[in-house]
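Please review this one:
***
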Amino acid sequence: MPALATLARIYVDDLDTALPTFTALAGEPVRQRFAYRDLELATVGNFLLIAGTPEALAPYRQTQATVLVADLAEVLDTGAVLDGPNDVPTGRNLTLRHAGGAVIEYVQFSRPSAG
């Protein structure tokens, strides 16, 4: 179950305001941009920017990283399921709490998202 990539989750108030800083840091343009529930998200390099109101962000702030995997089934039994599996704009996701307390979102991409 090797990770294909790990994205640092960055919680921001406004995506449009934050994006120039992270495109400069990554040296790359926005790869994906999409809405999910009451949030706006964008990936830039190895950053996942998540924007929303404090209330909208609150349920997600405990999640420390997003890990891309080939198959969610391979990680399903590695921790306690907190959320998912869910259909999301990029494929399917699931959030686990692992032994030791780390909370990680796993994403299996199956559809590209318009940027």
About this structure: The chain has one domain: 5-109. Helices lie at 15-26, 54-57. Residues 5-109 form a domain with the 2,3-Dihydroxybiphenyl 1,2-Dioxygenase; domain 1 fold (CATH 3.10.180.10). The chain has two helices and eight strands.
